[in-house]
# Entry
Amino acid sequence: MDGNNTRLFSAAGSMIVLKGVLTGLVTSLLLSLLFAGVILWFSLPLVWASVLAYAANAAGAFAGGFVSGTLAGCKGLKFGFATGAVMFAVVFLAGVIAGRNVPGIGSIAVGAGISVGFAVLGGIVGVNRK
# Structure
């Protein structure tokens, strides 16, 4: 992609965000499976489940933002923000559908902040890597 002509709300920009979201979701899923195995293997208290779930979400969001920023070549903050926002929306909707309940506003704010914040950071790092 030509970094100078990449627009967020274009077909090329949407594909960049989609690739970042898919990368982030796959990374989060794999890390969640790994962390579940760690919890079971070491018989950790259940409180670790939410901590490691947030860590998997943060790592996945960073990876997704990094891919988006790298593919875009510019505007890492914007592409990272879009990647994190879409990724949060997908995870939130999947959680509501699977859990059949809506989490509190505090959990929503923390989840959105982690997803968007780490994706923005990944997008900036992805654009500026050499």
About this structure: The chain is about 80% helix and 0% strand. Residues 32 and 54 are 9 Å apart (CA to CA).
